[in-house]
Amino acid sequence: MPRLAIAPEVHRDLGALAPSARQEAVVALRRFLRGATSAPHPERVRNTRDTRVATLRLAERHRAVVVRQREVFWMLAVLPDAEAWSYAQRHRFAVNAAAGMAEIWDAAALEAVEPALRRAAESAGLRLFAHVCDTDLLGLGIDTWLLPLARLMTSEATLEALEPLIPESQYAPLSVLAQGGSLAEAWRALDGCAAVPASSVDVSDLAGALERTPGRAVFVADAEELDRLLDRPRWCGFPHATQYRIVYQDVHDGPVLVTGGAGTGKTVIAVHRAAHLATTGGGRVLLVTFSQATAGDVTAKLDVLVDDERVRARIEVGNVERLAHRIVAEAEGRPPLLVGGPDLATLWQEAAGLYGGPHSPAFLLREWEQVILAQNLCTLQEYLGAARPGRSVELDRRERTAVWQAIEHVTGRLRDSGRRTLLQLATQASTLLGRTTGDLLGDDAPGHEPYRHIVVDEAQDLHPAQWRLLRAAVPPGPDDLFIVGDPHQRVFDTRIALSTLGVKAETYRLTVSRRLSQETLTWAVRLRGGGPADGLVDGVTELAGYRADHGGMRPAVREYTSYDAELAGLVAQIRDWLAEGVPANTVAVAARSAGTVRDAKSALGGAGLKIRVTSLHGLKGLEFRRVALIGVAEGLVPAPGALTPAEEDPTARAHDLQRERGLLYMACTRATERLYVSYSGRASPFLPP
Ligand SMILES: Nc1ncnc2c1ncn2[C@@H]1O[C@H](COP(=O)(O)OP(=O)(O)OP(=O)(O)O)[C@@H](O)[C@H]1O
């Protein structure tokens, strides 16, 4: 019986067909898998570069392009007839001789640029890879067909321009060598492209290579497997090489930390990993998300990925607050009371008046959260001897004593009224878990938290108190903590390296954004400042090497002469998008200030447009086809109320500014297709010129 190895583009192409044509094509594929007499049969195409290429007629004027090796058919695209024949003629297919993955490239396009490369090479004289011999290039898996072309390249810019035409497994090692990297570094880059390591490579065994390249092909043997693959989103069935390795291939002896820029697939990895652990590991899995909105998104993803109900039942989705709440409620026999923001603000006002001296309520609150709760300091003695990382205003012994008294005033008042803050709740829950760890680890104590595995999404914004809770909620060991996050998207003040909390993680870094177009990504990185960010990892995380896997539109930045005109511009923009046929639930509007959010809601509502309108924070972790950010003006972004006065604490102010910038950057990186940014008056100082 034939076996189909389906490429991700087939999933995309079938999804783009009219429903009747798609149905016809899927029925034809089912027949093909059954070997039915009425099934489409491979038809040779004239003038191909590879004799194994054929097409299968799947529907009226549409056919699939396949590469055949005995009973295995690698199906690459489903296109209108003429395009399918052209595709079949243009491409070459090979097995990487060094690493064994399947490769495909548009040979006709490369042949078309060859004369220009040759002319440039003749006039420049200097060659990009002159310092590397053929044997080494071939040893790195550079294809014999591509080698002469590589030899003509004169600059890194030429190589970069040809990147979309060259398989990643050819481009990655060449790029390292072009930047002056060593052969060993080039090898590592090639290894990074491999989902499954190959012990030996047979370049004639395409089917074997496809087994090692799960992101390029998924094998289906019958109609059921075919439907399962096609009916779910692409990220379910076609993990990219790095995703596959991290989730399914590598053995993790302890915590794992995956960092990566916006849209690099971290949530997808977290969801796959949770599903994999629930399938193969022991015990329950907690998948920690940031908010209710992200919990809903992640739950929906898990529901499509996992179809075995018993496996799905082993995974719980929730945030740290909910976990803390439950542990404390169970221990105390009733739900804990939380203090509201305004009441807490009043208490800090009181404390500042009584003991704060020159220090403002905001200063005292930050000292409590970032120094005392962060290090779980329980006595004045501990506080007097503690380091105060990230705090630039020195406090002598007398001042620390006064600050401690102010904090005791607030905590005492909270205790008297039986109320707590969320961070206090997390601290208390981890203390409770610490006391009873022995009981909690048995699976037969379902009242407690016997998690065997915890997967954390959006990890950059967790406070140390919350990390301590998560650490206490899972027994240390293989596959205990799997953490994904992006320090550049941090929207709260938690700049803590996991290692300082005793979490020594094996680290991975993702660099290719699957969401953003290169145009949006470049613009957003300029907005973010491109510089390093601290938190999660030791030292800093760089944005270097962060790139997109596709091109698109540049963000539209609109200046308006008045606020009313800006709101009218928003309404017009949303109308245009909807008129293009973009579904309303794939569009989001956001602003920094609550007032602007309210005004946008009423302007859109008044125009009869039902669109999600939220704060910038409300976009965290989410994705939309189109995003409009309004009110990105001086005086609104950064929000003045969120900034510490420079005279009070310059370091805190610098951190506040960076956090506000990170918030806008996060919001600007939510759109898959279009980003619209507007302001009236002067632009926010964060917007790139
Ligand atoms: N293997 C894959 N195949 C197809 N699409 C993928 C794959 N992996 C990720 N994607 C898509 O890339 C986009 C970004 O993925 P995801 O939301 O996981 O990124 P992220 O790193 O968590 O982003 P952020 O940190 O910005 O929230 C999503 O649209 C997702 O469906």
From TrEMBL:
<dbReference type="InterPro" id="IPR000212">
    <property type="entry name" value="DNA_helicase_UvrD/REP"/>
</dbReference>
<dbReference type="InterPro" id="IPR014017">
    <property type="entry name" value="DNA_helicase_UvrD-like_C"/>
</dbReference>
<dbReference type="InterPro" id="IPR027417">
    <property type="entry name" value="P-loop_NTPase"/>
</dbReference>
<dbReference type="Pfam" id="PF13361">
    <property type="entry name" value="UvrD_C"/>
</dbReference>
<protein>
    <recommendedName>
        <fullName>DNA 3'-5' helicase</fullName>
        <ecNumber>5.6.2.4</ecNumber>
    </recommendedName>
</protein>
<feature type="domain" description="UvrD-like helicase ATP-binding">
    <location>
        <begin position="239"/>
        <end position="528"/>
    </location>
</feature>
<keyword id="KW-0067">ATP-binding</keyword>
<keyword id="KW-0413">Isomerase</keyword>
<keyword id="KW-0378">Hydrolase</keyword>
<keyword id="KW-0347">Helicase</keyword>
<dbReference type="Pfam" id="PF13245">
    <property type="entry name" value="AAA_19"/>
</dbReference>
<feature type="binding site">
    <location>
        <begin position="260"/>
        <end position="267"/>
    </location>
    <ligand>
        <name>ATP</name>
    </ligand>
</feature>
<dbReference type="InterPro" id="IPR014016">
    <property type="entry name" value="UvrD-like_ATP-bd"/>
</dbReference>
<keyword id="KW-0547">Nucleotide-binding</keyword>
